[in-house]
Amino acid sequence: MELIIYGTFLVLSLVAYAARQVANKGDEKKVSISNINFKSFQKSFFLVYFLALLGDWLQGPYVYKLYAFYGFKESEIAVLYVAGFASSVVFGTCTGPLADLWGRKKMAIAFSVIYTFCCLTKMSPNFWWLFIGRVFGGVATSMLFSTFESWYVYEHSERHGFPSEWIGITFSITTFWNGMIAIFAGIISNVTAETLGFGPVAPFVVALLPLVVCGVLVVNTWEENYGDRKSNFSGSCWEGLKIIFSDEQVLLLGSVQSLLESCMYIFVFLWTPVLDTGTTPLGMVFSCFMVCIMVGSALFSIMANRGYTEANILKHCLIMISVSMAICCYTARPGATNIDTVISFLAFLVLEVAIGMYFPAISYLRSQVIPESHRANVMNWFRVPMNVITCGALLCLHVETISNDKRIVFGACLVLSLLGTFLCNRFILAFRDENASKKGGIDIENDVKSGKKLQ
């Protein structure tokens, strides 16, 4: 198993490099006009966003180990994990309306402060300090996955007036480098915690630097932008929910996102017990997953350059995840053989490639269907059902029958991904009809103007 994983990492790294080179050639053709201004704007966003991602990834590998190091039982650690997801549901939904009303730049600064505080709480072995840290971490995570994207889309479309199809290029690049940053963060975490012997708290201390620098750069380099500032806070919260249920495209896209990301977060809890045979190099497995995300982001660009729509790419992602979950419904059985474990590993790689394709696709589609006035608000509402489903799955893993046979959870994920595929088909039809009607309206307007000129 160990030799297979190291060999897979080498092959995937070569594939990721080759795929990225092919993708870059197509992207360069797209941005040949005004590319200097566009690339300069991209870099100003990448510098801040990548530091935020680095601060987030540095904390990932050693969270569970830190809690165990402090002497907490598995049931207590589960409570801490659930606190983070529950916080995203209860408090995270408030960050969207606040970002639209208060300003996305200010909210990005608040993200830096809150996540820094979250890291500082990890230095205490007191359960309640750690619990408070998880609550703040859940809020910060909601901000990371809505505020930065909302700020970028506004600046891209409204302030700079770049073509909307270039949004997909930016988020394809962020997904690719997200994988690179995750691998880099994993190495730093391992070196500081294990090699240098500073223990599992060390990565959280290191994470303070990129988070603080991120906040400083936002203060000094970003312009402020807003959503709809006419409503009050409570009105804005409900307005975001009303937008979701009054617009079929927004509702369908939000449902697809919630279902797919539920599978993704449940997988985060499942892959270790499924693949860990006692000698499995879990760090290298994680690195393989991150390289697959890089491959997926490059595949997104290649497919987009060859005429696939973002909605169809999203559908392909769901089909790939469904296949992966279906395979695991068999191979993740109790008493799995080495062959079963290898097949599960390969199925997980397919899932991670799909995730790499998913992020730029969903980012582009959100930019097209969610109203700018409530963008961050609506995006945070999308995360509510995902967090509820993930919390439920995590708590179910403490039921002995489910804990002993992970195929039950994989079966539930298969149902979620198949439902997501069905809803994605509905979304594709609605999105196509909406675009066709818009194009028809523009053509009629142009005909009217042409008629007036002829007269």
Report the portion of residues in β strands: under 5%
Secondary-structure-derived class: mainly alpha
CA gyration radius, whole angstroms: 22 Å
SSE order: HHHHHHHHHHHHHHHHHH
What's the helix count? 18
Quick one: how many beta strands? 0
Which parts are unreliable, with pLDDT below 50 for 5 consecutive residues or more? none
Query: What is the residue-averaged pLDDT?
Result: 86
The rough form would be described as globular
User: What portion of residues is helical?
Assistant: over 70%
Q: Describe the main β-sheet briefly.
A: none
Oligomeric state of the chains present here: single chain
Structure notes:
This protein is mainly α. It is built from 18 helices and no strands. The relative contact order is 0.14.
Secondary-structure blueprint:
Layout: H1 2-30, H2 35-57, H3 63-69, H4 74-90, H5 92-102, H6 104-121, H7 127-144, H8 147-159, H9 166-195, H10 202-221, H11 233-246, H12 248-275, H13 282-305, H14 310-331, H15 338-369, H16 375-396, H17 400-404, H18 407-454
Helix pairs in contact: 1-13, 2-9, 2-10, 4-7, 4-16, 5-6, 5-7, 5-11, 5-16, 6-7, 6-8, 6-10, 9-13, 9-15, 11-12, 11-16, 12-15, 12-16, 12-18, 13-15, 14-15, 14-18
Summary, kept brief:
Helix content is 84%, strand content 0%.
List its salient traits.
455 residues, mainly alpha
